[in-house]
Amino acid sequence: MTNVNQPQHYTTGKYEVIDYIKDKLSPDQYEGYCIGNVIKYVSRYEHKGGKEDLQKALVYLTWAIDNYDDNVDLPKGREVSG
User: In this structure, are residues 41 and 53 in contact, taking their beta carbons and an 8 Å threshold?
Assistant: First the structure.
């Protein structure tokens, strides 16, 4: 599952790309990004990546759930300071 969780082409620099994306987006934007990727991978799994695409969708869904749990008490559109 290395190609799903930590593909080499996304981890060659100092920071993993998903961490940079999360840092630059608001919690709502990041959640939308994750859900968009869930839709992408679920929609194409039968035609392109098979099980691996379903695994990728699960990773993005897990990130969206974690983000939701971390920000459930925040008003919509409000960024987390810290």
Answer: yes
- Which residue's structure tokens are 């559109």? 77
Percent composition of the chain: helix, strand, coil (DSSP 3-state, to 5) = 65, 0, 35
How far apart are the C-alpha atoms of 51 and 33, rounded to whole Å? 21
CA torsion 3-52-18-14 (nearest 10°) is 0
Q: Judge contact between 25 and 71, C-beta under 8 A.
A: no
- pLDDT tens by residue, 43-78: 999 999 999 999 999 999 999 999 999 998 876 655
* Chain length of the chain: 82
Which tokens go with 36?
């968009």
Q: Residue ranges of the domains in the chain? A: 16-71
